[in-house]
Amino acid sequence: MTGKVVLLTGATSGIGRACARAVASSGATLVVVGRSQERLDSLLSELRTVAGCGEVSGLLADLAIQSEIHTLADEFKSKHDRLDVLINNAGGIFSSLEKSSDDIEYTFALNHNGYYLLTTLLQDLLRASAPARVISTASAAHGMGKMVFDDLQYDNRRYGSGWSSYCQSKLANIMFTRELSRRLEGTGVTANCIHPGFVNTGFGKNNGALMRFSMLISRPVQRNPTRGAESLVWGALSKEAEGVTGKYLYNCKAKKPTRRARNDEDAARLWEITEKMTDTVAAWSPNLDVS
Predict the structure, then answer these.
(1) φ, ψ dihedrals at 211, nearest 5°
(2) What is the mean pLDDT of residues 189-205?
(3) Quick one: which of 204, 191, 236 has its CA closest to 5?
(4) Is 287 part of a structural domain of the chain?
(5) Cα angle: 112, vertex 113, 114; to 5 degrees
(6) Is 47 among the domain residues?
(7) What local confidence, expressed as pLDDT, does residue 211 receive?
(8) Catalytic amino acids?
(9) Among 32, 215, 259, 275, which is most exposed with the fewest C-beta within 10 angstroms?
(10) Sheet-wide strand order for 56-60
(11) Residues whose CB falls within 8 Å of the CB of residue 113, separated by 6 or more in sequence, listed in order
């Protein structure tokens, strides 16, 4: 990967941090994204001790806030003239409903819109760097998700909203990947998503005592972050994944997602809705500057 540029979001903890170490060891130029300067600095110090590490740097951004995603894309473009691999990994689960500063349900804003908008703003670099890859973290939780198109923002739904909004966002990740792959056909840029498995990280521990207890008692069946990151790293870096696109990966191989996730009409509909939410309508038309 020497001479290649990789951008990784959600890099400062869990499978993102494990992925960052693997990418660093490949010799790639790695740009990691996080919300805390302190945690970014800690990660960068760690990465620079990894054998074979190439150039590493960090950028601050909250991927639930659209203005910060625009700033992130601008800062990245000001420093790099290519992007070989974009790894969309930032995400979370929240026990209570809240809206982002863009007035979008927070889980949807972070877990889905963040992936879409960053990829859209960097599509020109990805196309120019082809063969290039986009790899995104989804989840088997998509199987319990449902796209309620007349109430995506949970204005009318309440019961179990934290978990159901998370499942909906993970379903959206797979639909986004399928539609992205279709739109990138013939460009040399591939798009895939992964299920990391049930991983022992800090994920979900911000949601009260019950969630923390659930994570504690289930620890014996949880994967460690390095194991959880394997499919993400495989999809991002391996020669075997070259040319593979539009797939949902688990344990470094393609796995069939649910029937809902394979509904391409719904995927196209979700794409159109997301365009409007992010003010990027027609951003994927040829030669259109969306910066």
Answers:
(1) -65, -40
(2) 74
(3) 236
(4) no
(5) 90
(6) yes
(7) 46
(8) 166
(9) 259
(10) 56-60, 29-34, 5-8, 85-88, 132-137, 189-194, 248-250, 253-254
(11) 64, 66, 104, 274, 277, 278
pLDDT at 115: 98
Q: Do the domain assignments include residue 262?
A: yes
Q: Which amino acid would we find at residue 128?
A: A
The answer to whether the bond into 131 is cis (omega within 30° of 0) is: yes
- Per-residue pLDDT band for 94 (boundaries 50, 70, 90) equals confident
For residue 288, tell me if it sits in a domain.
no
Number of domains in the chain: 1
The pair of structure tokens assigned to 183 is 């739109």
Instruction: For tokens 């969309």, name the residue.
Output: 88
pTM: 0.90
CATH number of the domain where residue 149 is located: 3.40.50.720
pLDDT digits (tens, 9 = 90+) for 24-65: 999 999 999 999 999 999 999 999 999 999 999 999 999 999
- The phi, psi pair for 173, rounded to 5°, reads -60, -40
| 217 residue type, one letter | I
The C-alpha atoms of residue 247 and residue 50 are separated, in whole angstroms, by 30
**Domain ranges, residue 35:** 5-277
* Predicted confidence band of residue 114 (pLDDT cuts 50, 70, 90): very high
Report how far residue 177's alpha carbon sits from residue 174's, in angstroms, rounded to the nearest whole number: 5
